[in-house]
Amino acid sequence: MSILKLKSFNGNVMAENKTLDAVKKCLRDFPLEARELYLNKTVPCLEQPLSPLEFYREWIGPNKPCVIRNAFGHWPALSKWNPSHLREVVGSKVISVAVTPNGYADAVNRDRFVMPEERLMTFSSLLDVVEGKVESRGVFYVQKQCSNLTEELPELTGDVETHIPWMSEALGKLPDAVNFWLGEAGAVTSMHKDHYENLYCVITGEKHFILLPPSDRPFIPYEHYQPAVYRQREDGDFDVVDVADSDKVPWIPLDPLKPDLELYPDYSLARPLHVTVKAGEMLYLPSLWFHHVRQSHGCIAVNFWYDMEYDIKYNYFQLVESLAGAVGPL
């Protein structure tokens, strides 16, 4: 290579590195500006629901979470949904239950993205496990997110509402799904995001959320994994079985309960919010917010998924996500 070509090559490399450094700086500064401009340092609590217009202006539009009290105190479920009542009303119903060896369904396990074994069992059989009346290897969790309340347990819908009227009016639509959740304390939902405006209502027990705003995406690692499922053997142990002929799944390998900052140092710049939602309380979890969820043993909840608007905010998030994935560690 001639001296002129070598100088030109080195100049191009230096210019590319300078551009890359500038993009990385923008991605580091972007979440900080969001915190200064509009994000709260904690999750606020409202003592009652707002009007549809007020809620849209103050929470949905700005894409900020909040806890809402006294939002569904009229639901019979709050006083009726105990094991005895549930056995009587839906005990014989066959439902889909996620079973895992460690409580982590839809989560990274070494070099695999592993989904739970979906086991069909009667509701009473599930309650036997949760109440400790039978011994069973694994962690059990009703978490099927396909409107399982209305599809699998319609007998219970009279004890709740199948939509939240003020939210439906605020968004101009009905929920895409109404989901029922019940499981053991060991059941954990790994960090992820959803394309829904989510109203999460705790009926009994409590849920513990770790939340991160979409603007923190540059600090959150993603990797691609071979999908697999758990399969329990006759001896009680679990195998991890690859899903054949499937594309790799992008997922977050980091556990916010014990983040490996040596492996993912950028996460030290994130500012997670911690919030506990108790029985009778509702969490508004905005679209695209990253969340990790734990629960008290036997906690029961119902959530409402309203499809998000794929507008300019979504476009901006996609841009940030593309840039964060392209430039690598900051």
TrEMBL record:
Function text: Bifunctional enzyme that acts both as an endopeptidase and 2-oxoglutarate-dependent monooxygenase. Endopeptidase that cleaves histones N-terminal tails at the carboxyl side of methylated arginine or lysine residues, to generate 'tailless nucleosomes', which may trigger transcription elongation. Preferentially recognizes and cleaves monomethylated and dimethylated arginine residues of histones H2, H3 and H4. After initial cleavage, continues to digest histones tails via its aminopeptidase activity. Additionally, may play a role in protein biosynthesis by modifying the translation machinery.
First-level EC class: oxidoreductase
Domain JmjC: 142-321
Self-association state and partner proteins as the record states: Homodimer; disulfide-linked. Interacts with DRG1 and DRG2.
Annotated PROSITE patterns: JMJC
Cofactor entry: Fe(2+)
SUPFAM superfamilies, alphabetized: Clavaminate synthase-like (SSF51197)
Organism: Oncorhynchus mykiss
InterPro entries the UniProt entry points to: Cupin_8 (IPR041667), JmjC_dom (IPR003347), RmlC-like_jellyroll (IPR014710)
Pfam family, one: Cupin_8
Keyword Disulfide bond: yes
Entry's EC annotation: 1.14.11.63
Domain of life: Eukaryota
GO molecular function terms listed in the Swiss-Prot or TrEMBL record: hydrolase activity; metal ion binding; peptidyl-lysine 3-dioxygenase activity
Subcellular location: Cytoplasm; Nucleus
Entry keyword set: Cytoplasm, Disulfide bond, Hydrolase, Iron, Metal-binding, Nucleus, Oxidoreductase
GO terms for cellular component: cytoplasm; nucleus
Primary localization: cytoplasm
TM ranges: none
UniProt name for this protein: Bifunctional peptidase and (3S)-lysyl hydroxylase JMJD7
